[in-house]
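Fig. S4 source data, part A: sequence.
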Amino acid sequence: MAMASIRDNARKVVCIGRNYAEHITELNNARPKQPFFFLKPPSSIVPPASGPVLRPLGVNLHYEVELALIMGQTVRDLDANDEKRAMEAIDGYAVGIDMTARNVQDEAKKKGLPWSIAKGFDTFLPMSNYVPKTVVPDPHNVELWLSVNGEVRQQDNTQLMLFPIPRILAEISQCMTLEKGDVVLTGTPKGVGSVVVGDVMTAGLRVDGMEVEEARIEVKVQQKGGRYEYKET
């Protein structure tokens, strides 16, 4: 399955926030009692080798590497204890980098405003190629990693997720129907930070210590043109 077709077929991208304890700590956030989520537009997806991440003017641009679920079935009102149904509904996996305009998000949170803009710019979701389920026998035991200019910034195992995948899909589907082709990002581990124009991000995942070639991302950061410039709301 081509990632370009995943972008075209995704009705929505649902992102789980604060799903790794040390990431919560590094951003001085409160630990959630249950999964919470936000949305990114499918237009933010950058398929492999399809271009750079574009940094909007005035934005403090942060990376967040995540395991992505590609939904293969419609899921509605799922029981969190129905692990079999949850895992059957997943068609495959990918690696995604949830790019975030951190200063835009921080201002919005401080003022109690929505922060969709901080997550939704074009090119704010570079993704790897599709990874078949057969390559990832246990998505709760894979190593995610991200480097900037060859320096490792994030590297942790999905075993550290606070909320496992069945619970994540249950919480989402009890609020909104997950449809075939939708993308679910499962949260980012510690080590998030900023990138600037000219930086090159590389990311991927390992299963049993072995690199999964389909999951590799390499993408450069360039300056975004156009009329947008960050200004305080």
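Fig. S4 source data, part B ends here. Residues 102-110 form the longest helix (9 residues).
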